[in-house]
Amino acid sequence: MGKKKIMFFAYLLLSTIFISFSFAGITKESPLSIGQTVSSSNGVYELGFFSPNNSQNQYVGIWFKGIIPRVVVWVANRENPVTDSTANLAISSNGSLLLINGKHGVAWSSGEALASNGSRAELSDTGNLIVIDNFSGRTLWQSFDHLGDTMLPFSTLKYNLATGEKQVLTSWKSYTDPSLGNFVVQITPQVPTQALTMRDSRPYWRSGPWAKTRFTGVPLMDDSFTNPLSLQQDANGSGSLTYLNRNFKLPRIVITSKGSLEISRHSGTDWVLNFVAPAHSCDYYGVCGPFGLCVMSVPPQCKCFKGFIPKYIEKWKRGNWTDGCVRRTKLHCQENSTEKDANIFHPVANIKPPDFYEFASAVDAEGCYKSCLHNCSCLAFSYIHGIGCLMWNQDFMDTVQFSAGGEILSIRLARSELGKA
Fold it and tell me: Where is the secretion signal located (predicted)?
């Protein structure tokens, strides 16, 4: 009998410890304090307070449960760490999440909500922190609408031109500082859209336009990381890139403080990197300047397209390519040019399509050629499987030539350039 009592009290003690440190969710009556966590029902994700580099700063974040070292995938109060040991994450009567910094007031809020009869916050099996209305069951707020630096399975990167809404991934300032860093990943409102990493306000890396199942600037994109990606655009000026990876345990897309866009998965013992960009010197945006072509050779080199020469030859020879190239022979284009004086189109293979493209709807391959030919402002065209016709009316920027894969870019030249080197 005494042994049973000891086992009962041991069980009661363990249960009390568990209840004290792991919640099923956050309610008005049960805020989350430092040292307590909320776990997803599948045991994959955990929400709580963490302190990078064992500093005095405390942040509310979501991380992969049981993975060492800890990998944080979302942070609430990136710009406003709390330092009071009595800080807690509470939920108001109207459904707003509030990070209370002890006696110092509110350090972070999820914003106004409209709960009808109270609300609660739960951590879903996909790592999404959700505020739910107790009466209707509808979602009042979710962390997936505020992605931070990481995309998890089922999360979406999107934009809406009508409302001005735009979601981005923003890097940490450093490995131990989750405040906003210098790098931002977004999808662009171009048609078709592309993924773009910005460093401050300047382009840093570009994926190339999306072609139904792949980014054209990633020629060896395979099923290991293309299948999980779904990209949608509509006529109302909205677009979304959704990450739906059901194949791997603990997959994620992250932008690091160094500007690397990485897709990785956890093997059970370590993180396996499936994709990283930029990975090559030609991946950096516009490294060869306008009308320059970055050739992924060994070593990589910049060259001018046929019919173009370096803008500043001496600088080019010294390896300063940023000024790019200029046309050698001026175009004499007329819409009804005779065959004698008509421009020609020179095809270049294995190309990452340049930036600043325009989409020509409902045009087949032959129509793509004719549309560009009879439009003197059209400098190049490319008919791409999965997209259709793209045309360029301004400087070619950020063009890369791969050793394999890529697209064919047909550039307009003066006929006299045909026999030149």
Answer: 1-24
